Amino acid sequence: MNKRIIECVPNFSEGRDKEKIRQIVRAIEAAGGVKVLDVDPGEATNRTVVTFVGEPEAVVEAAFAGVRKAAEVIDMRQHHGEHPRMGATDVLPLVPVSGITLEECVPLARDLARRIADELHIPTYCYEAAALRPERRNLAVCRAGEYEALPDKLAHVDTEPDFGARPYDEGIARTGATTVGARDFLIAVNFNLNTTSTRRANAIAFDVREKGRPVREGNPITGPIVRDADGKPVMRPGTLPATKAIGWYIKEYGIAQVSMNLTDISRTPLHVAFDEVCRKADARGVRVTGTEIVGLVPKRALIDAGRHFLRKQRRSTGISEEEIMKIAIKSMGLDDLKPFRPEEKVIEYLLEADDRKERLIDMSCKAFAEETASESPAPGGGSISAYMGALGAALGTMVANLSSHKAGWDERWEEFSDWADRGQKLLDELLHLVDEDTEAFNRIMAVFAMPKGSDEEKAARSAALQEATLYATQVPLRTMKAAAEVFPIVKAMAETGNPNSVSDAGVGAIAARGAVLGACLNVKINAAGLKDRTVAESLTAEADSIAAEAVRLEAEILRIAEDKIKK
Q: What is the DSSP string of 147-167?
């Protein structure tokens, strides 16, 4: 079962006083059990976005500690900034990351909101999935009128908070109100414009945001607003669903921006929002010069963007994750205002950073070879087999990418891009198996360190050894299956790819065959240690079948390569 992990992204109404920000972050960390991934202060907005993750109970405690400290150090009576705000802790969402659903985050958010009101005496509203009133799913409804509207909002039942309702007093004047919610991933992004005009930035924001703009009679800018039977403005929706946007001027940068929240990136991905803001800006004589991501971004948003821009260029998308990331960064100008470092901004990279072990595939070729040559029994033949398979996949992918860029073959770019995508996936899988094969060996070694005194201990040790041995048999079988999938790629490249690279396709076939036969030996030697002979024989028979087919396919591909070379 996956570890239950949630993310919390509180926005605090302080972006200028570094000491106050440090105190808030220290309070969050001191609560224990969480990892702060990012602290993103904005001077012009006078707002800091803190991102931290952990197991649900720890995150809730840390969030409460952050709200408490913010209430102590921030006085909303002195606060001014470009961003809408309502309290010292303005908004506090809980976001499911793994092992927990959005629905399970809802009671956590509501309980936290109630606790903030009861113990800290801060009025709280609940929004998004945690909303207790349908209209309050929208953060803008909860924050309507901002901090300045609180005296009036607290005086009316329809606008009073969900928890902690009371007449406006000195305590509320200092802390303001807080909005707590549960939501899916939200990307906060600002699109930089080559203008200082807030009015033009707002016009672009209204063009694209889901809410759109009010319909007006006659003159679309100055004409009277059309209202419905209830007196509410009739809105003309914008072009991007699941988006909220406003325009503002940022003195710190000397430019106007379209500031946007992407509330559902499956409906409006980051790259779609970028392209549409560019289109609408161009229609108004304005140009988007870059993009600023506030806080963190999920990896898939950038990978999808990079692939999108490669396709627009009619370029192969079958390249490494790092290269795709670079394309996304340059295409959207993510480094326009300051350097964009994926290891600091992509949530998955930050989560992996502390847990990541030393991996064989992170070594240089020389270091890997020397480690293999040492007197340690691992890495051994299984890891080397997986690496040979990875090299075979890499060669097939290389030929596909070269073919997609070959002069005169422009119309075939997508055909070769598809092959390169397949090769890149196999490359990633086989590189993973390089380390997993060594992990399988280590599991067996760990069993021998188990106690074996009592009958119970002996039985447990025996069962653990069989489990580890089965795993050590299955891993090289997975290597065989993955390496076998290299053959269709190198065969297609030998037959239809760049003829100047046909020898590379042939070497790819040789590497794939070596991977399959090498891994087959590992399947057999580990299967020999299984007590369940039916399982052992089944795994061995499957391995033999894959090996025989690999020998046949290698010979076929080498014949094709030899014939092409002779011509």
A: GGGHHHHTTSTTTS-SB----
